[in-house]
Design goal:
The structure is a single chain. This protein is 36% helix and 13% strand. With 249 residues, it is of the alpha/beta class. α2 (33-39) links the parallel β1 (17-22) and β2. α3 packs across α4 (91-105). The longest helix has 20 residues, at 157-176. Belongs to the thioesterase family. Pfam families: Thioesterase.
């Protein structure tokens, strides 16, 4: 069901456009809940919730993009009843990109816009060593060093153990991902990256221009890989500007 894959939004009935949001590895819908208020009433923000976290904690997480894509798109189908766009951060950028391509390939419509954040373009090789196959203590230490795991999770062994399964699965998906078969997008693509992001350089983000026949823009914002926590205002302004008149109720 669509309700399983996304969270509800107060703007669902009046918004001119729906925005599906995909979080970083280990992230969930909570990262985008403030966006629902800040973009209402013109944009219906729908954070996408993958299995293995938050209210879906007991479900088995996906480890490969190709396995995730079918169930995810089936779940989003009932929400494709109006113009839509996608935003993805880090791992979420790759998921959003492949979701956009799969929905288009199925003939269910084309997105108005794809916003990708803090992940190198899909066709570029990784330059950092993989983490997903490390022993658990080394894996969790390496992930904690990156700064994306909430402190309340790191400080409680029980929470950390429950969180670790989905986190490792997400890293496996992120680190083994290669673009799936398919063509170029036709919609505009906007790439956003923190100026001090050690995982995605501006040249790597510029490579996203090769994923679409449409317009491309690169936005560099202040911050590191998790710039959204402190500097979400600029991405939100970019989303408002790009969706423009379509987003008006």
């Amino acid at each position: 069901m669509a309700e399983t894959w996304t969270t509800d939004s107060a703007g669902a009935d009046t918004a001119g456009v729906r925005l599906f949001c995909f979080a970083h590895a280990g992230g969930g819908a909570a990262a985008f809940r403030p966006w629902q208020r800040r973009l209402a009433p013109s944009v219906d923000v729908r954070p996408v919730l993958l299995p293995g976290r938050e209210t879906r904690l007991r479900e088995k997480p996906y480890r490969r993009m190709a396995e995730l894509l079918g169930p995810l798109c089936d779940g989003l189908l009932p929400l494709l009843d109006r113009p839509f766009a996608l935003f993805g951060h880090s791992l979420g950028a790759a998921v959003a990109y492949e979701t956009a391509r799969e929905i288009t390939a199925r003939g269910w419509g084309e997105p108005l816009h794809l916003f990708v954040s803090a992940r190198r373009a899909p066709h570029l090789p990784a330059r950092l060593p993989p983490l997903h196959d490390l022993p658990e203590e080394e894996f969790l230490t390496a992930v904690a060093r990156m700064g994306g795991t909430p402190p309340e999770v790191l400080e409680h062994p029980g929470l950390l153990k429950a969180f670790a399964t989905a986190l490792r699965a997400d890293f496996e998906m992120h680190e083994t991902y290669v673009p799936l078969p398919g063509g170029l997008l036709a919609c505009p693509v906007t790439a956003l990256v923190g100026a001090r992001d050690p995982q995605a350089g501006t040249d790597e983000m510029a490579g996203w221009r090769d994923t679409t026949r449409g317009a491309f823009a690169l936005r560099v914002v202040e911050g590191d890989h998790f710039y959204l926590r402190e500097a979400a205002g600029e991405p939100l302004a970019t989303i408002r500007d790009e969706l423009g008149a379509v987003a008006r109720p």
